Amino acid sequence: MMRRLLACGLAMVLLVSCQREADGKFAELSGRMFVFNYRVATANYLVTLRKTAPLPEGAYAEAEFENPEGGAPFVVRQTLFPVMEKIVLQSPNLKCVKKDRPYSVRIRLVGAGDEPLQTIETSITSDVDQTVMPSKPLVVGPLYTPNPEVFHADGTADYGKEDNCPA
Of 9-13, 18-22, 37-41, 74-78, which one has max mean pLDDT? Predict the structure, then answer.
């Protein structure tokens, strides 16, 4: 009787592990958004994934973010470690983000030896236009000192809107 229970338990474990490998799903999308930081005048894509299965040693994530200015997409590579439960991918600084326009994002999870594990494709849409951002950082330095290029000694401010973005 004990052997049957043990054999049954072992069979269930094997079936579950086979299902996980056949599923091919190591992570799932848990968040995606644009991050606008008006203090330093930057905008970035931010994507988070929740790990759903153990990743092999030496795995990495590669995200390809559509470039709002046009041209080649931004590619970001993040090394993955077995202890990571959440994977965070952030783009370099962006320009020309338009409100209500979907921008494509493609994420590849890759194992050691460049073996493809999983691909996730999604899009991110901003609810504000980047023209609301100043073109120069409002503050400089670790103490958030007002930027003298924006806030002049005579009390005026120059938020300098640059708009040389494609239509």
Answer: 74-78
Do the beta carbons of residue 150 and residue 41 sit within 8 Å? no
Distance in Å from the first CA to the final CA of the chain:
73
User: Which two three-digit tokens encode residue 137?
Assistant: 């950082």
Question: Alpha-carbon distance 147 to 139, whole Å?
Answer: 5
Q: pLDDT tens-digit profile of 80-136?
A: 998 999 999 999 999 999 999 999 999 999 998 899 999 999 999 999 998 888 888
Residue 74's DSSP bridge partners are 65
Find the farthest-apart pair of alpha carbons in the chain and give their distance in angstroms, rounded. Answer: 89
Parallel/antiparallel/unpaired status of strands 27-37 and 60-65: unpaired
Q: What angle do CA 94, 96, 99 make, to 5 degrees?
A: 110
49 CB neighbour count, 10 Å cutoff: 26
Q: In this structure, which amino acid lies at residue 122? A: T
